Task: inverse folding
Protein backbone atom coordinates (compact mmCIF):
# COMPACT_ATOMS: atom_id res chain seq x y z
CA UNK A 1 0.00 0.00 0.00
CA UNK A 2 2.33 2.67 -1.23
CA UNK A 3 -0.39 5.22 -0.82
CA UNK A 4 -0.80 4.43 2.82
CA UNK A 5 2.91 4.40 3.45
CA UNK A 6 2.92 8.03 2.41
CA UNK A 7 0.09 8.73 4.83
CA UNK A 8 2.15 7.23 7.64
CA UNK A 9 5.24 9.13 6.54
CA UNK A 10 3.29 12.36 6.70
CA UNK A 11 2.53 11.65 10.31
CA UNK A 12 6.14 11.23 11.35
CA UNK A 13 6.94 14.91 11.96
CA UNK A 14 3.85 15.74 14.03
CA UNK A 15 3.71 12.42 15.86
CA UNK A 16 7.43 12.45 16.44
CA UNK A 17 7.16 15.84 18.00
CA UNK A 18 4.15 14.94 20.10
CA UNK A 19 5.69 11.67 21.21
CA UNK A 20 8.71 13.42 22.62
CA UNK A 21 7.00 16.49 24.03
CA UNK A 22 3.52 15.24 24.88
CA UNK A 23 3.39 11.49 25.39
CA UNK A 24 6.70 11.14 27.14
CA UNK A 25 6.03 13.99 29.58
CA UNK A 26 2.62 12.52 30.31
CA UNK A 27 4.15 9.15 31.09
CA UNK A 28 6.78 10.89 33.16
CA UNK A 29 4.12 12.69 35.10
CA UNK A 30 2.46 9.40 35.84
CA UNK A 31 5.71 7.89 37.03
CA UNK A 32 6.51 11.02 39.01
CA UNK A 33 3.22 10.77 40.83
CA UNK A 34 4.31 7.50 42.37
CA UNK A 35 7.59 8.88 43.66
CA UNK A 36 8.67 11.24 46.38
CA UNK A 37 10.42 13.52 43.92
CA UNK A 38 11.33 17.10 44.58
CA UNK A 39 13.00 19.65 42.36
CA UNK A 40 16.47 18.25 42.82
CA UNK A 41 16.10 14.51 42.67
CA UNK A 42 13.81 11.79 41.43
CA UNK A 43 13.00 10.41 44.84
CA UNK A 44 11.99 6.87 45.69
CA UNK A 45 9.03 4.81 44.68
CA UNK A 46 6.28 5.27 47.23
CA UNK A 47 3.29 3.77 45.48
CA UNK A 48 -0.01 5.46 46.09
CA UNK A 49 1.22 7.53 49.05
CA UNK A 50 0.93 10.82 47.12
CA UNK A 51 -2.61 10.03 46.07
CA UNK A 52 -3.61 9.07 49.57
CA UNK A 53 -2.11 12.26 50.89
CA UNK A 54 -3.94 14.32 48.31
CA UNK A 55 -7.30 12.84 49.16
CA UNK A 56 -7.02 13.82 52.83
CA UNK A 57 -5.12 17.08 52.30
CA UNK A 58 -7.42 19.96 53.32
CA UNK A 59 -5.70 22.26 50.88
CA UNK A 60 -6.34 19.91 47.96
CA UNK A 61 -9.92 19.38 49.02
CA UNK A 62 -10.38 23.13 49.28
CA UNK A 63 -8.95 23.49 45.79
CA UNK A 64 -11.35 20.90 44.50
CA UNK A 65 -14.35 22.70 45.92
CA UNK A 66 -13.10 26.06 44.70
CA UNK A 67 -12.49 24.66 41.21
CA UNK A 68 -15.92 23.07 41.01
CA UNK A 69 -17.68 26.23 42.17
CA UNK A 70 -15.61 28.36 39.84
CA UNK A 71 -16.18 26.04 36.87
CA UNK A 72 -19.92 25.63 37.31
CA UNK A 73 -20.54 29.32 37.99
CA UNK A 74 -18.41 30.34 35.01
CA UNK A 75 -20.08 27.89 32.65
CA UNK A 76 -23.50 29.01 33.82
CA UNK A 77 -22.65 32.64 33.28
CA UNK A 78 -21.00 31.98 29.93
CA UNK A 79 -23.96 30.06 28.59
CA UNK A 80 -26.52 32.61 29.76
CA UNK A 81 -24.53 35.62 28.60
CA UNK A 82 -23.49 33.89 25.39
CA UNK A 83 -27.04 32.89 24.59
CA UNK A 84 -28.29 36.39 25.26
CA UNK A 85 -25.67 37.97 23.06
CA UNK A 86 -26.22 35.40 20.32
CA UNK A 87 -29.96 36.01 20.32
CA UNK A 88 -29.36 39.74 20.07
CA UNK A 89 -26.81 39.49 17.27
CA UNK A 90 -29.03 37.06 15.40
CA UNK A 91 -31.50 39.88 14.82
CA UNK A 92 -30.81 41.83 11.71
CA UNK A 93 -30.60 45.37 13.05
CA UNK A 94 -28.83 48.48 11.95
CA UNK A 95 -25.28 48.70 13.21
CA UNK A 96 -25.22 44.96 13.79
CA UNK A 97 -21.76 44.46 12.35
CA UNK A 98 -20.27 47.22 14.46
CA UNK A 99 -21.93 45.96 17.61
CA UNK A 100 -20.74 42.46 16.92
CA UNK A 101 -17.21 43.76 16.46
CA UNK A 102 -17.40 45.65 19.76
CA UNK A 103 -18.82 42.76 21.72
CA UNK A 104 -16.02 40.51 20.56
CA UNK A 105 -13.37 42.90 21.85
CA UNK A 106 -13.00 41.43 25.36
CA UNK A 107 -12.11 38.08 23.84
CA UNK A 108 -9.75 39.56 21.31
CA UNK A 109 -7.49 41.62 23.52
CA UNK A 110 -4.66 39.76 25.21
CA UNK A 111 -5.23 38.28 28.62
CA UNK A 112 -2.69 40.43 30.41
CA UNK A 113 -4.19 43.63 29.03
CA UNK A 114 -7.62 42.62 30.30
CA UNK A 115 -6.19 41.65 33.66
CA UNK A 116 -4.39 44.95 34.01
CA UNK A 117 -7.48 47.04 33.39
CA UNK A 118 -9.50 44.86 35.74
CA UNK A 119 -6.84 45.37 38.40
CA UNK A 120 -7.09 49.10 37.83
CA UNK A 121 -10.87 49.08 37.90
CA UNK A 122 -11.18 46.98 41.05
CA UNK A 123 -8.80 48.94 43.22
CA UNK A 124 -10.28 49.88 46.51
CA UNK A 125 -10.79 53.42 45.24
CA UNK A 126 -11.29 52.50 41.63
CA UNK A 127 -14.06 52.92 39.12
CA UNK A 128 -15.84 49.67 39.91
CA UNK A 129 -16.37 50.52 43.54
CA UNK A 130 -17.24 54.07 42.55
CA UNK A 131 -20.03 52.85 40.31
CA UNK A 132 -21.28 50.43 42.92
CA UNK A 133 -21.40 53.09 45.61
CA UNK A 134 -22.99 55.71 43.37
CA UNK A 135 -25.68 53.31 42.28
CA UNK A 136 -26.39 52.43 45.87
CA UNK A 137 -25.58 48.76 45.57
CA UNK A 138 -22.96 48.92 48.30
CA UNK A 139 -22.27 51.42 51.04
CA UNK A 140 -18.51 51.29 51.19
CA UNK A 141 -15.68 50.27 48.85
CA UNK A 142 -15.48 46.52 48.31
CA UNK A 143 -12.22 44.76 48.95
CA UNK A 144 -12.20 42.58 45.86
CA UNK A 145 -8.91 40.97 46.69
CA UNK A 146 -9.15 40.74 50.45
CA UNK A 147 -12.50 39.03 50.93
CA UNK A 148 -12.87 35.41 49.85
CA UNK A 149 -16.35 35.59 48.35
CA UNK A 150 -15.56 38.84 46.54
CA UNK A 151 -12.41 37.36 45.03
CA UNK A 152 -14.38 34.38 43.74
CA UNK A 153 -16.96 36.73 42.26
CA UNK A 154 -14.14 38.69 40.67
CA UNK A 155 -12.46 35.79 38.91
CA UNK A 156 -15.77 34.29 37.82
CA UNK A 157 -16.95 37.62 36.41
CA UNK A 158 -13.66 38.14 34.67
CA UNK A 159 -13.70 34.76 32.97
CA UNK A 160 -17.30 35.23 31.87
CA UNK A 161 -16.54 38.72 30.52
CA UNK A 162 -13.48 37.46 28.67
CA UNK A 163 -15.04 34.44 27.02
CA UNK A 164 -18.71 35.13 26.47
CA UNK A 165 -17.99 36.52 22.98
CA UNK A 166 -16.50 33.18 21.98
CA UNK A 167 -19.43 31.28 23.45
CA UNK A 168 -21.84 33.72 21.82
CA UNK A 169 -20.30 33.12 18.41
CA UNK A 170 -20.56 29.37 18.76
CA UNK A 171 -24.16 29.59 19.91
CA UNK A 172 -24.88 32.06 17.11
CA UNK A 173 -23.64 29.58 14.54
CA UNK A 174 -25.90 27.00 16.14
CA UNK A 175 -28.82 29.41 16.06
CA UNK A 176 -28.29 30.11 12.40
CA UNK A 177 -28.34 26.44 11.58
CA UNK A 178 -31.88 26.04 12.89
CA UNK A 179 -34.15 25.91 9.84
CA UNK A 180 -36.33 29.02 9.62
CA UNK A 181 -39.10 26.73 8.52
CA UNK A 182 -39.50 25.48 12.05
CA UNK A 183 -40.17 28.99 13.30
CA UNK A 184 -42.72 29.53 10.54
CA UNK A 185 -44.45 26.30 11.45
CA UNK A 186 -44.55 27.30 15.10
CA UNK A 187 -45.97 30.71 14.26
CA UNK A 188 -48.67 29.08 12.16
CA UNK A 189 -49.52 26.94 15.17
CA UNK A 190 -49.98 30.14 17.16
CA UNK A 191 -46.78 30.15 19.16
CA UNK A 192 -45.67 33.50 20.58
CA UNK A 193 -42.00 34.47 20.74
CA UNK A 194 -41.39 32.92 24.12
CA UNK A 195 -42.98 29.66 23.06
CA UNK A 196 -40.98 29.71 19.85
CA UNK A 197 -37.84 30.10 21.92
CA UNK A 198 -38.72 27.24 24.20
CA UNK A 199 -39.92 24.80 21.58
CA UNK A 200 -37.82 25.61 18.54
CA UNK A 201 -34.69 27.47 19.58
CA UNK A 202 -33.65 25.55 22.65
CA UNK A 203 -34.15 22.06 21.19
CA UNK A 204 -32.42 23.26 18.04
CA UNK A 205 -29.40 24.24 20.08
CA UNK A 206 -29.18 20.92 21.87
CA UNK A 207 -26.40 19.34 19.85
CA UNK A 208 -24.23 22.46 19.80
CA UNK A 209 -25.01 23.11 23.43
CA UNK A 210 -24.10 19.66 24.61
CA UNK A 211 -20.68 19.70 22.99
CA UNK A 212 -20.15 23.28 24.09
CA UNK A 213 -20.89 22.56 27.73
CA UNK A 214 -18.53 19.62 27.84
CA UNK A 215 -15.77 21.64 26.19
CA UNK A 216 -16.35 24.57 28.52
CA UNK A 217 -16.21 22.29 31.52
CA UNK A 218 -12.94 20.71 30.49
CA UNK A 219 -11.36 24.01 29.53
CA UNK A 220 -12.48 25.93 32.58
CA UNK A 221 -11.55 23.13 34.94
CA UNK A 222 -8.08 22.63 33.58
CA UNK A 223 -7.00 25.71 31.68
CA UNK A 224 -7.92 28.60 33.91
CA UNK A 225 -4.50 29.02 35.45
CA UNK A 226 -3.65 32.40 33.87
CA UNK A 227 -7.13 33.86 34.32
CA UNK A 228 -7.22 33.28 38.03
CA UNK A 229 -3.54 33.47 38.88
CA UNK A 230 -2.96 36.82 37.18
CA UNK A 231 -5.84 38.33 39.12
CA UNK A 232 -5.56 36.86 42.59
CA UNK A 233 -2.64 34.41 42.66
CA UNK A 234 -4.93 31.95 44.38
CA UNK A 235 -6.98 34.47 46.21
CA UNK A 236 -6.90 35.74 49.73
CA UNK A 237 -5.77 32.71 51.67
CA UNK A 238 -6.59 30.20 48.94
CA UNK A 239 -10.12 31.40 48.33
CA UNK A 240 -9.54 31.17 44.59
CA UNK A 241 -6.92 28.43 44.75
CA UNK A 242 -8.10 26.36 41.79
CA UNK A 243 -6.50 22.97 41.17
CA UNK A 244 -4.20 24.35 38.48
CA UNK A 245 -2.81 26.93 40.85
CA UNK A 246 -2.55 24.39 43.64
CA UNK A 247 -0.52 22.08 41.43
CA UNK A 248 1.67 24.95 40.34
CA UNK A 249 2.42 26.10 43.86
CA UNK A 250 3.05 22.59 45.10
CA UNK A 251 5.54 21.99 42.31
CA UNK A 252 7.28 25.32 41.95
CA UNK A 253 7.05 26.93 45.37
CA UNK A 254 7.08 23.95 47.67
CA UNK A 255 9.11 21.90 45.17
CA UNK A 256 7.11 18.76 45.84
CA UNK A 257 7.09 17.55 42.24
CA UNK A 258 5.90 14.04 42.97
CA UNK A 259 2.99 15.20 45.04
CA UNK A 260 2.06 17.87 42.51
CA UNK A 261 2.19 15.27 39.75
CA UNK A 262 -0.24 13.11 41.69
CA UNK A 263 -2.66 16.00 42.15
CA UNK A 264 -2.41 16.57 38.41
CA UNK A 265 -3.25 12.94 37.72
CA UNK A 266 -6.27 13.28 39.97
CA UNK A 267 -7.41 16.26 37.88
CA UNK A 268 -6.99 14.12 34.76
CA UNK A 269 -8.99 11.30 36.26
CA UNK A 270 -11.78 13.65 37.24
CA UNK A 271 -11.89 15.17 33.77
CA UNK A 272 -11.87 11.79 32.05
CA UNK A 273 -14.57 10.45 34.31
CA UNK A 274 -16.78 13.49 33.86
CA UNK A 275 -16.28 13.47 30.08
CA UNK A 276 -17.13 9.79 29.78
CA UNK A 277 -20.14 10.02 32.07
CA UNK A 278 -21.39 13.14 30.29
CA UNK A 279 -20.99 11.60 26.83
CA UNK A 280 -22.73 8.45 27.99
CA UNK A 281 -25.56 10.48 29.50
CA UNK A 282 -25.97 12.54 26.33
CA UNK A 283 -26.10 9.38 24.23
CA UNK A 284 -28.77 7.94 26.53
CA UNK A 285 -30.82 11.09 26.15
CA UNK A 286 -30.70 11.19 22.37
CA UNK A 287 -31.46 7.52 21.99
CA UNK A 288 -34.60 7.70 24.04
CA UNK B 1 -33.63 37.22 10.05
CA UNK B 2 -36.16 38.75 12.35
CA UNK B 3 -37.07 42.43 12.41
CA UNK B 4 -38.68 44.40 15.22
CA UNK B 5 -41.17 47.16 15.68
CA UNK B 6 -42.27 49.71 18.25
CA UNK B 7 -41.67 49.16 21.94
CA UNK B 8 -40.00 45.87 21.22
CA UNK B 9 -37.50 47.93 19.33
CA UNK B 10 -36.86 50.19 22.31
CA UNK B 11 -36.34 47.29 24.68
CA UNK B 12 -34.16 45.54 22.17
CA UNK B 13 -31.88 48.49 21.57
CA UNK B 14 -31.60 49.09 25.31
CA UNK B 15 -30.43 45.53 25.67
CA UNK B 16 -27.95 45.99 22.85
CA UNK B 17 -26.53 49.10 24.49
CA UNK B 18 -26.37 47.40 27.87
CA UNK B 19 -24.53 44.36 26.59
CA UNK B 20 -22.16 46.36 24.45
CA UNK B 21 -21.34 48.70 27.31
CA UNK B 22 -20.58 45.82 29.66
CA UNK B 23 -18.28 44.39 27.05
CA UNK B 24 -16.33 47.48 26.12
CA UNK B 25 -16.42 49.62 29.24
CA UNK B 26 -13.16 48.17 30.60
CA UNK B 27 -11.55 48.73 27.23
CA UNK B 28 -12.75 52.31 27.17
CA UNK B 29 -11.29 52.77 30.64
CA UNK B 30 -8.04 51.32 29.43
CA UNK B 31 -7.79 53.76 26.56
CA UNK B 32 -8.80 56.80 28.56
CA UNK B 33 -6.45 56.02 31.44
CA UNK B 34 -3.54 55.63 29.06
CA UNK B 35 -4.17 59.15 27.78
CA UNK B 36 -4.21 60.78 31.21
CA UNK B 37 -2.07 63.84 31.60
CA UNK B 38 -0.80 63.43 35.11
CA UNK B 39 1.00 60.18 35.01
CA UNK B 40 1.53 59.88 38.73
CA UNK B 41 -1.79 60.85 40.20
CA UNK B 42 -4.84 58.71 40.55
CA UNK B 43 -8.00 60.47 41.54
CA UNK B 44 -11.17 59.29 43.14
CA UNK B 45 -13.56 59.29 41.44
CA UNK B 46 -11.35 58.34 38.52
CA UNK B 47 -11.27 60.86 35.72
CA UNK B 48 -12.90 59.36 32.72
CA UNK B 49 -13.34 62.15 30.26
CA UNK B 50 -10.13 62.36 28.29
CA UNK B 51 -8.65 65.81 28.75
CA UNK B 52 -7.19 65.90 25.32
CA UNK B 53 -4.88 63.28 23.83
CA UNK B 54 -1.67 63.05 25.74
CA UNK B 55 0.81 60.48 24.65
CA UNK B 56 3.25 61.00 27.50
CA UNK B 57 2.36 57.66 29.00
CA UNK B 58 3.16 55.89 25.77
CA UNK B 59 6.53 57.56 25.55
CA UNK B 60 7.12 56.60 29.15
CA UNK B 61 6.30 52.94 28.78
CA UNK B 62 8.13 52.51 25.52
CA UNK B 63 11.36 54.22 26.45
CA UNK B 64 11.65 54.22 30.22
CA UNK B 65 10.85 50.55 30.39
CA UNK B 66 12.01 47.57 28.33
CA UNK B 67 8.61 47.17 26.71
CA UNK B 68 10.08 47.03 23.22
CA UNK B 69 12.36 44.22 24.23
CA UNK B 70 9.49 42.37 25.84
CA UNK B 71 7.44 42.82 22.69
CA UNK B 72 10.29 41.46 20.64
CA UNK B 73 10.37 38.34 22.77
CA UNK B 74 6.62 37.96 22.52
CA UNK B 75 6.88 38.30 18.77
CA UNK B 76 9.55 35.61 18.54
CA UNK B 77 7.47 33.21 20.59
CA UNK B 78 4.29 33.93 18.65
CA UNK B 79 5.90 33.57 15.25
CA UNK B 80 7.75 30.46 16.34
CA UNK B 81 4.61 28.87 17.69
CA UNK B 82 2.67 29.75 14.56
CA UNK B 83 5.24 28.39 12.11
CA UNK B 84 5.84 25.26 14.14
CA UNK B 85 2.21 24.45 14.76
CA UNK B 86 1.10 25.10 11.19
CA UNK B 87 4.11 23.27 9.81
CA UNK B 88 3.42 20.13 11.79
CA UNK B 89 -0.34 20.49 11.65
CA UNK B 90 -0.44 20.59 7.89
CA UNK B 91 1.17 17.17 7.61
CA UNK B 92 -1.25 15.61 10.04
CA UNK B 93 -4.20 17.44 8.51
CA UNK B 94 -3.36 16.30 5.01
CA UNK B 95 -2.79 12.74 6.15
CA UNK B 96 -6.17 12.64 7.86
CA UNK B 97 -7.91 14.35 5.00
CA UNK B 98 -6.74 12.33 2.01
CA UNK B 99 -6.03 8.88 3.34
CA UNK B 100 -7.76 6.09 5.21
CA UNK B 101 -5.57 3.72 7.15
CA UNK B 102 -5.34 1.65 10.24
CA UNK B 103 -4.86 3.63 13.41
CA UNK B 104 -5.97 6.84 11.78
CA UNK B 105 -8.81 7.48 14.19
CA UNK B 106 -6.69 6.65 17.18
CA UNK B 107 -3.95 9.05 16.21
CA UNK B 108 -6.52 11.70 15.37
CA UNK B 109 -8.03 11.21 18.80
CA UNK B 110 -4.63 11.52 20.39
CA UNK B 111 -4.00 14.84 18.69
CA UNK B 112 -7.45 15.94 19.72
CA UNK B 113 -6.66 15.28 23.38
CA UNK B 114 -4.05 18.02 23.31
CA UNK B 115 -6.87 20.50 23.00
CA UNK B 116 -8.51 19.40 26.22
CA UNK B 117 -5.45 18.40 28.19
CA UNK B 118 -4.81 20.21 31.47
CA UNK B 119 -1.65 22.19 30.91
CA UNK B 120 -0.66 22.18 34.57
CA UNK B 121 -0.34 18.42 34.40
CA UNK B 122 2.24 18.72 31.67
CA UNK B 123 4.14 21.72 32.95
CA UNK B 124 5.96 19.74 35.63
CA UNK B 125 7.47 17.02 33.43
CA UNK B 126 8.08 19.59 30.69
CA UNK B 127 10.01 21.72 33.14
CA UNK B 128 12.19 18.77 34.00
CA UNK B 129 12.56 17.82 30.34
CA UNK B 130 13.50 21.37 29.40
CA UNK B 131 16.09 21.48 32.13
CA UNK B 132 17.63 18.25 30.91
CA UNK B 133 17.74 19.39 27.29
CA UNK B 134 19.10 22.79 28.27
CA UNK B 135 16.04 24.45 26.79
CA UNK B 136 15.00 25.92 30.10
CA UNK B 137 15.14 29.70 30.16
CA UNK B 138 15.09 29.87 26.35
CA UNK B 139 12.44 31.24 24.05
CA UNK B 140 12.73 28.06 22.00
CA UNK B 141 11.58 26.04 24.97
CA UNK B 142 8.49 28.16 25.33
CA UNK B 143 7.81 27.86 21.60
CA UNK B 144 7.96 24.07 21.83
CA UNK B 145 5.71 23.95 24.87
CA UNK B 146 3.11 26.25 23.36
CA UNK B 147 3.20 24.42 20.03
CA UNK B 148 2.25 21.15 21.71
CA UNK B 149 -1.15 22.58 22.42
CA UNK B 150 -1.54 24.33 19.08
CA UNK B 151 -0.80 21.48 16.70
CA UNK B 152 -4.24 20.01 17.26
CA UNK B 153 -5.93 23.29 16.42
CA UNK B 154 -3.94 23.68 13.23
CA UNK B 155 -4.50 20.08 12.23
CA UNK B 156 -8.22 20.48 12.48
CA UNK B 157 -8.49 23.81 10.74
CA UNK B 158 -6.26 22.64 7.89
CA UNK B 159 -8.01 19.29 7.60
CA UNK B 160 -11.27 21.16 7.20
CA UNK B 161 -9.85 23.22 4.38
CA UNK B 162 -8.18 20.23 2.73
CA UNK B 163 -11.46 18.33 2.88
CA UNK B 164 -13.22 21.06 0.96
CA UNK B 165 -10.72 20.89 -1.89
CA UNK B 166 -11.84 18.68 -4.79
CA UNK B 167 -9.50 15.77 -5.20
CA UNK B 168 -9.53 15.99 -9.00
CA UNK B 169 -6.77 18.55 -9.12
CA UNK B 170 -4.51 16.33 -7.08
CA UNK B 171 -5.35 13.31 -9.17
CA UNK B 172 -4.54 15.25 -12.31
CA UNK B 173 -1.22 16.35 -10.86
CA UNK B 174 -0.44 12.79 -9.85
CA UNK B 175 -1.08 11.60 -13.37
CA UNK B 176 1.21 14.33 -14.64
CA UNK B 177 3.92 12.84 -12.49
CA UNK B 178 3.94 15.16 -9.52
CA UNK B 179 5.31 13.59 -6.35
CA UNK B 180 2.89 13.16 -3.47
CA UNK B 181 4.71 15.65 -1.32
CA UNK B 182 4.91 18.00 -4.28
CA UNK B 183 1.15 17.92 -4.51
CA UNK B 184 0.96 19.13 -0.96
CA UNK B 185 3.37 21.98 -1.45
CA UNK B 186 2.56 23.10 -4.96
CA UNK B 187 -1.15 22.58 -5.26
CA UNK B 188 -2.97 22.00 -2.01
CA UNK B 189 -1.30 24.64 0.14
CA UNK B 190 -1.52 27.49 -2.35
CA UNK B 191 -5.18 26.70 -2.88
CA UNK B 192 -5.79 26.50 0.86
CA UNK B 193 -3.95 29.69 1.67
CA UNK B 194 -6.89 31.20 3.57
CA UNK B 195 -6.96 28.13 5.80
CA UNK B 196 -3.24 28.22 6.35
CA UNK B 197 -3.39 31.88 7.24
CA UNK B 198 -6.27 31.26 9.63
CA UNK B 199 -4.36 28.51 11.39
CA UNK B 200 -1.24 30.66 11.43
CA UNK B 201 -3.00 33.65 12.93
CA UNK B 202 -4.78 31.62 15.57
CA UNK B 203 -1.54 30.01 16.68
CA UNK B 204 0.10 33.41 16.62
CA UNK B 205 -2.55 34.82 18.92
CA UNK B 206 -2.21 31.86 21.27
CA UNK B 207 1.52 32.41 21.44
CA UNK B 208 1.04 36.14 21.99
CA UNK B 209 -1.15 35.58 25.05
CA UNK B 210 0.86 32.71 26.46
CA UNK B 211 1.59 32.87 30.16
CA UNK B 212 2.06 29.57 31.98
CA UNK B 213 5.06 28.22 30.12
CA UNK B 214 6.87 31.53 29.71
CA UNK B 215 6.28 32.22 33.40
CA UNK B 216 7.62 28.83 34.43
CA UNK B 217 10.51 28.38 32.03
CA UNK B 218 11.99 31.86 31.68
CA UNK B 219 14.18 33.23 34.41
CA UNK B 220 16.15 36.05 32.77
CA UNK B 221 14.25 39.28 32.77
CA UNK B 222 15.87 40.05 29.45
CA UNK B 223 13.91 37.17 27.97
CA UNK B 224 10.61 38.22 29.44
CA UNK B 225 7.63 38.31 27.16
CA UNK B 226 5.39 41.35 27.28
CA UNK B 227 2.91 39.34 29.34
CA UNK B 228 5.52 38.70 32.01
CA UNK B 229 6.80 42.25 31.84
CA UNK B 230 3.38 43.82 32.17
CA UNK B 231 2.52 41.37 34.93
CA UNK B 232 5.51 42.55 36.93
CA UNK B 233 3.82 45.92 37.29
CA UNK B 234 1.05 44.39 39.34
CA UNK B 235 3.40 43.07 41.97
CA UNK B 236 4.79 46.41 42.99
CA UNK B 237 2.91 49.25 44.57
CA UNK B 238 2.85 50.79 41.16
CA UNK B 239 0.38 53.59 40.85
CA UNK B 240 1.54 54.94 37.51
CA UNK B 241 -1.47 53.53 35.77
CA UNK B 242 -1.24 55.59 32.59
CA UNK B 243 1.97 53.95 31.36
CA UNK B 244 0.68 50.54 32.43
CA UNK B 245 -2.49 51.01 30.43
CA UNK B 246 -0.46 52.36 27.54
CA UNK B 247 1.61 49.20 27.66
CA UNK B 248 -1.51 47.07 27.78
CA UNK B 249 -2.87 48.81 24.71
CA UNK B 250 0.36 48.60 22.76
CA UNK B 251 0.44 44.89 23.51
CA UNK B 252 -3.15 44.54 22.37
CA UNK B 253 -2.62 46.26 19.01
CA UNK B 254 -1.40 43.20 17.04
CA UNK B 255 -4.36 41.20 18.34
CA UNK B 256 -6.73 43.92 17.21
CA UNK B 257 -5.04 44.14 13.83
CA UNK B 258 -5.20 40.41 13.32
CA UNK B 259 -8.81 40.46 14.38
CA UNK B 260 -9.74 43.27 12.01
CA UNK B 261 -7.92 41.60 9.19
CA UNK B 262 -9.19 38.09 9.65
CA UNK B 263 -12.37 38.41 11.71
CA UNK B 264 -14.56 36.34 9.48
CA UNK B 265 -12.03 33.61 8.98
CA UNK B 266 -11.26 33.21 12.66
CA UNK B 267 -14.90 33.15 13.58
CA UNK B 268 -15.48 30.60 10.86
CA UNK B 269 -12.59 28.53 12.13
CA UNK B 270 -13.89 28.42 15.68
CA UNK B 271 -17.49 27.72 14.82
CA UNK B 272 -16.57 25.15 12.23
CA UNK B 273 -15.09 23.05 14.97
CA UNK B 274 -18.09 23.34 17.18
CA UNK B 275 -20.75 22.46 14.64
CA UNK B 276 -18.88 19.81 12.75
CA UNK B 277 -21.03 17.09 14.24
Result:
Amino acid sequence: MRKNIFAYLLLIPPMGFLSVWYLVPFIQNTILSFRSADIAQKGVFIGLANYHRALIDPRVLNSLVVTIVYTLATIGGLVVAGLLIALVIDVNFRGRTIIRGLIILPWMIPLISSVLVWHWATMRYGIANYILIQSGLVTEPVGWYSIASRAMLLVISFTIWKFCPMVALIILAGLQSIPRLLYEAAKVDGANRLQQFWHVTLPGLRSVGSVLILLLFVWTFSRSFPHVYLLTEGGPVRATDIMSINIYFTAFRKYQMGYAAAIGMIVMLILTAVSLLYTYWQKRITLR
Amino acid sequence: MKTLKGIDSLLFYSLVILLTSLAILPIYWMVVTSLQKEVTIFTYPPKLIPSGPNLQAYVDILFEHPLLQWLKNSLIISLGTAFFSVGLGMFAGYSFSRFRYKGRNMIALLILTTQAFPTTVLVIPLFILMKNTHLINTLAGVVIATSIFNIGLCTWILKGFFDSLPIDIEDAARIDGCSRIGILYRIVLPLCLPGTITAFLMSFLNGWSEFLFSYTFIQDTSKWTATLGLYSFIGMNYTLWAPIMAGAIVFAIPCLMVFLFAQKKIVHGITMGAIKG
Notes: DSSP finds 13 helices and no strands in chain A. The longest helix of chain A spans residues 58-90. The two ends of chain A are 43 Å apart (CA to CA). Chain A has a mean pLDDT of 91.
